[in-house]
Specification:
164 residues; mainly alpha; 2 domains; 7 helices; 57% helix; disordered N terminus
Amino acid sequence: MRYPDGGGLTAKQRAQRERVRFEAAELFAQGVAPAQVAGRFRVSRKSAYAWDARWREGGVEALRSKGLSGRPSRMKPGWRVWLAAEPEKGPTVHGWVEDQRWTLARVARVIARRFHVRFSPAQTWRILRQMGWTVQVPARRAAERDEDAVSGWIKKTWPRVERR
């Protein structure tokens, strides 16, 4: 199952679902039918019957959350702390002088240089998004731009052009 945030359930959400399964187990122990449990907790009947079968086989422990799915990330929590401070230093510190923008490829290269672990641009983006970073696109303006001339043009010339 895919989730809109791209990361599955949070620890809090997993704990909440686990509590629901434990409450369902209490009802199963009292002899309540899985169909009634499904209605009470607003879950599918299929889920309720699956919980009942797992509860009968292994008790309440069989309904315990299995934790995160998939492989654990190779990006260690301590590395994330280091990585959070690096963009503030700028690309020049890491050897890019021609262009002062961070790209996913550059961030991936900085991580690879420091920790000897390679991440694809897609994985690098997932890591940065989990850390709270967002896409920032610089405004494309000429270095020679004269702001006073632009504001004067907007005030005087644009109203005449707009009338047509």
